[in-house]
Amino acid sequence: MPTLTVQNLPGGPINVSSGQTLLRALHAAGHDWMHACGGKGRCTTCRIELVSGSENLAPPTTHELRYLNTGRLAPTARLACQAQLLQGELTGRVPEATKLPHVQYVEES
Ligand code: FES
């Protein structure tokens, strides 16, 4: 089963059903993750910074392409509500700007 590791979240790798969005997998694993528009691809608050394994993701959706083309989404990030992990492993990080105040993040060394 594909796995997602978020370096600055506790708890280790998260199982992702093939084709499941990262946001659904994070929620299924009990993690709170900012998603201001409710996962409709209309904000960028759910973005995840990619560290490795981006080749295992499905291509960007039209919502993601819109933000990529206007510079509101970095080429090294994806929208968790849109991005589907198809296979293998993906490693990413919660961006500093979208950390939730009540979540205990893993400190950087
Ligand atoms: S939750 Fe708004 S774009 Fe993903």
UniProtKB/TrEMBL annotation:
Protein name: 2Fe-2S ferredoxin-type domain-containing protein
Domain (2Fe-2S ferredoxin-type) ranges: 1-98
InterPro entries per UniProt: 2Fe-2S_ferredoxin-like_sf (IPR036010), 2Fe-2S_ferredoxin-type (IPR001041), Adrenodoxin-like (IPR001055), Beta-grasp_dom_sf (IPR012675)
Pfam families cross-referenced by the UniProt entry: Fer2 (PF00111)
SUPFAM superfamilies referenced in this protein's UniProt entry, alphabetically: 2Fe-2S ferredoxin-like
BP terms from Gene Ontology: P450-containing electron transport chain
Keywords: 2Fe-2S, Iron, Iron-sulfur, Metal-binding
UniProt family annotation: Belongs to the adrenodoxin/putidaredoxin family.
PROSITE patterns: 2FE2S_FER_2
Cofactors demanded by this protein: [2Fe-2S] cluster
PANTHER family: FERREDOXIN-2, MITOCHONDRIAL (PTHR23426:SF65), FERREDOXIN/ADRENODOXIN (PTHR23426)
GO MF: 2 iron, 2 sulfur cluster binding; electron transfer activity; metal ion binding
CDD domains tied to this protein: fer2
